[in-house]
């Protein structure tokens, strides 16, 4: 049996590890957007492939920057981390290869995909390189990342698409706040000053609840009051002592709320916000 090239194994390891941790939800959201706007099957397939490769690039880049910390962490996949450490050059080549394929796809097929690549990839690089250890900016960066990654899921001149990705950004604010809470003790041990390390557990929990209220209010005003109530319901999910379990419950609740928003647009042909109701085909300058 032929030996798998190290660069390919590294990419497969990234996919396996991140999928197991449910950390490619932005790709599911992008597919939901494609279906909401009834994109043709060929375009849906191309955008999905682009989104998958983009996710592999940004998560591999994150692992590349975090390699030193991951080697000292008991919560990481030791075999995967050691292989990456042993094959650093292959990991760099894998990133360059993924980037080259993505740029080629966008230039040859659909140039607007460069927006998602530049913003999503750029924000993730800045987050991995520096911002994840800057209190406040860690949460802001992942909020913007939550907006930029799903931009590959719809034609960028559609107003409703931007409302939906804005909602995804607010959901990412919730998720990043939970993540820094989960990692607070480990980050403090590594002298990583995240938002949760700076303000403490109690204030971070209040931040999470505030972000849930903001996400729910936005949904109710611009997209769907039903989804808004669902998102605000996350405020009443008990934290408990198991932060990953709490995170999964909130992800499920916000994920279902987003699907309600997409279904509302798909079946009614417009958003159903308490303040604004916008047709699905409304376009900037149209």
UniProtKB/TrEMBL annotation:
It is a multi-pass membrane protein. It comes from the Bacteria. Keywords: Membrane, Transmembrane, Transmembrane helix. Pfam families: UbiA. It is found in: Membrane. The chain crosses the membrane at residues 98-127, 211-237, 249-268. Its main location: membrane. GO terms for cellular component: membrane. GO terms for molecular function: transferase activity, transferring alkyl or aryl (other than methyl) groups. This is Prenyltransferase.
């Amino acid at each position: 049996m032929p030996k798998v090239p190290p660069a390919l194994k590294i990419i497969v390891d990234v996919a396996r590890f991140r999928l197991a941790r449910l950390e490619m939800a932005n790709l599911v959201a992008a597919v939901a957007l494609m279906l909401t706007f009834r994109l043709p099957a060929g375009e849906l397939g191309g955008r999905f492939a682009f989104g998958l490769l983009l996710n592999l690039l940004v998560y591999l880049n994150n692992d590349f920057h975090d390699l030193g910390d991951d080697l000292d962490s008991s919560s990481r996949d030791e075999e995967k981390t050691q292989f990456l450490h042993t094959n650093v050059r292959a990991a760099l080549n894998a990133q360059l290869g993924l980037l080259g394929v993505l740029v080629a796809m966008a230039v040859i097929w659909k140039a607007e995909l460069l927006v998602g690549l530049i913003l999503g990839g750029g924000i993730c690089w800045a987050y991995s390189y520096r911002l994840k250890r800057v209190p406040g900016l860690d949460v802001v960066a992942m909020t913007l990342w939550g907006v930029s990654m799903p931009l590959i899921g719809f034609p960028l001149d559609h107003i409703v698409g931007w409302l939906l990705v804005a909602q995804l950004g607010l959901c990412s604010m919730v998720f990043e706040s939970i993540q820094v809470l989960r990692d607070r003790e480990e980050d403090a041990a590594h002298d990583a000053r995240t938002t949760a390390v700076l303000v403490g557990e109690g204030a971070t929990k209040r931040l999470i609840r505030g972000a849930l209220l903001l996400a729910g209010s936005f949904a109710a005003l611009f997209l769907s009051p039903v989804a808004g109530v669902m998102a605000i319901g996350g405020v009443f999910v008990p934290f408990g002592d198991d932060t990953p379990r709490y995170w999964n419950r909130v992800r499920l609740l916000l994920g279902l709320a987003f699907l309600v928003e997409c279904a509302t647009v798909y079946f009614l042909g417009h958003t159903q916000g308490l303040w604004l109701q916008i047709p699905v085909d409304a376009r900037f300058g149209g």
